[in-house]
Amino acid sequence: MDIIPVSRPSLGDDELNAIKPVFESGWLGMGSLVYDFEEKLKDFISAKNVVCTNTGTTALHLALESIGISKGDEVLVPSFTFISTIQAISATGAKPVFCDVRREDLNIDPSEIKNKITEKTKVIMPVHYRGLPCDMNIINKIASENNLRVIEDAAHAFGSSYDGKKIGSFSDIACFSFDPIKNITCGEGGAVVFQDDNLLEIIQQKRILGIDKDTWSRYKNERSWFYDVVTQGYRYHMSNINAAIGLVQIEKFKKMNERKIFAAKRYDAAFSNIKGITILRNDNYNDIGLFTYVMLIDNNRDKLMEYLNSKGVGCGVHYIPSHLFSYYKSDNVDLPVTEEIYEKIITLPLFPDITGGNIQRVIDVVCEGMKILNK
Questions:
Q1: How far is residue 236's CA from residue 314's CA, in Å, rounded to a whole number?
Q2: For residue 311, what is the domain's CATH number?
């Protein structure tokens, strides 16, 4: 029995052909193709500045460090996110202060942000879960009123728009991920997108070991043998190999996203009237770069997962709330919605190459499983 996976990248000859010239050039590391990919991202997002990295996690870390976040600072963030979001915060020495989410879309609740601001708060970090944007007008207003920075975790939201503007085109800082299962992939990769020109040099320096001006040499596929190190930095730069894949993927984004939305709408239509299933708010998928399909199972979620797996339909849980992990656990965290929905969420197969037969099989097996559970 073939298993339908929860997610899978859409890669083929186009990506392989794009990598070949990089191999032939002998310049595999950060080089001219990274510059080209950054320029392509600027055009796609309508962004002012873009710095590509090797992962979305390192993009978040660079964003935080570049604005001076360090030990003693607090960052307001949903617990309901992949742990990489939180690890990027704690890597700076800052404290993640966990906020609850809204039940209808699982995005950060703005009222929680207001209630948890202290004199130590320096950043609000909303996560655009599934690709559905958070209420950025409200969040940016809260930030402005309290002299806070906003760093959006847009790992799920490449291609999404808010009020007709692409995520990354209008707010303070946004960070994207291009890992194997994201909306587009570079194999591995990420990007920091920002408005403040003053951040460009420091982020570029931190991306490559704190070396001054090395970025510009490498953009020309050259190496600078004499240089200075001017700040703490890391090996966070993207390679030409990864950029070559990204340049192909960005041209495919529209088609890949349309297929995922087609599948999601099929799921919505099939499951919306089934007892025990709650469909999350999705705004009819208008202007959304859709990452994954998640719904809520009122009771016996784990039994449904067991049934799906037994029938060859992959399923998952995105995500374990971060405040439940040993490293971040605290007795003072009260997140009732987060803890409730964690027991109910289920992720169903969704990827650009999903077939009509795959979609129908997922629907049939879920319906069969719910029929058994509802007896």
A1: 33
A2: 3.90.1150.10
CA angle, 86 as apex, 44 and 191 as ends, to 5°?
20
Walk across the sheet containing 149-153 and list its strands: 49-53, 190-194, 173-177, 149-153, 121-124, 74-78, 95-99
Q: Is 325 helix (H, G, I), strand (E, B) or coil?
A: coil
Output the tens digit of pLDDT for each of the chain's 375 residues.
799 999 999 999 999 999 999 999 999 999 999 999 999 999 999 999 999 999 999 999 999 999 999 999 999 999 999 999 999 999 999 999 999 999 999 999 999 999 999 999 999 999 999 999 999 999 999 999 999 999 999 999 999 999 999 999 998 999 999 999 999 999 999 999 999 999 999 999 999 999 987 766 777 777 778 888 999 999 999 999 999 999 999 999 999 999 999 999 999 999 999 999 999 999 999 999 999 999 999 999 999 999 999 999 999 999 999 999 999 998 789 999 999 999 999 999 999 999 999 999 999 999 999 999 998
Q: Are residues 172 and 263 in the same domain?
A: no
**What's the pTM value of the predicted model, to 2 decimals?**
0.96
- CA 83 remoteness from chain centre: 11
- Known catalytic residues are 182
Sign of CA dihedral 331, 332, 336, 340: negative
Q: How far is it, in rounded angstroms, from Cα 320 to Cα 317?
A: 7
Which of 199, 225, 248 terminates a domain? The answer is: 248
Identify whether residues 338 and 283 lie together within a single domain: yes
**Does 74 map to a domain?**
yes
Q: What are the DSSP E strand ranges found in 46-94? A: 49-53, 74-78
Non-local CB neighbours of 302 within 8 Å, separated by 6+ positions = none
Q: Report how many domains make up the chain.
A: 2
| CB-neighbour burial class of residue 145 (10 A; exposed 0-12, middle 13-18, buried 19+) | exposed
Structural domain that includes position 199: 13-248
339 and 311 in a single domain? The answer is yes
